Here is the input.
Amino acid sequence: MTSSALHQPSARAAAPYTRRSVLTGAFALTAAAALPLAAAGRAYSAATPDIIGCAAWGARAASEPVVVLANGPERIIVHHTATANVTDYSKQRAVALARAIQTYHMDAQGWIDTGQHFTISRGAFVLEGRHNSLAELRTGHRQVRAAHCVGQNTVSIGIENEGTYTSQDQPAAQYAALADLCAHICDQYGLPASEIYGHRDFNATSCPGDRLYAKLPTLRRDVAARLGTPLSEEAVDPIEDLVRQATGRPASEYAEYLPAGLLP
Here is the structure.
């Protein structure tokens, strides 16, 4: 895409997963303000992420049928939205963010729906992005075709993290929500924690920001701990990363960018 940028609760012990355990056991700010919701970030459950589905956040219908692929994902790709690092951690803000992303992706980009599968607000609310992503995650067999990373949209799950993480770290609760969601996705699809990457690993972009990208090895370890499995290997090729650093990282034209004005 071409445009200007879009894109704490206490710490808790990580709970190990068992596969399928969770199965058993414009732009929106004004509209979202009408919701009777608390203004603080929510407490996050490590074992069973609470994901706000498309219907619950008021998503528009996709302009065309969302394609459900026969295959599941091979990896997870982490993004940042490149929006302001706001201190509004409310559910209203999270809903507004999800609606604004969908509006831009559909109306400006001409896509059929939100590009990524899931979005995490700075208040640690997790929201479904593209329709049917949550339903397919629950079954743990298939995924929907997305639009978050060129060349990876049929073999990966894309997660957008609200904020810009070039020189700042995520809020602790948002990071915990990301780790919990990644662990849940890995558990459902049988993925190892080593298969968590950043957008820049596949496309010429600075996403998900230098600080968040640098934390991906920690994220893999934290996800492995939640899964109760050893981390098999690091996903990043250090030689490839050195080449990328030497050649520079142009501004992204992909899913994490929105024009100024969609969100305050």
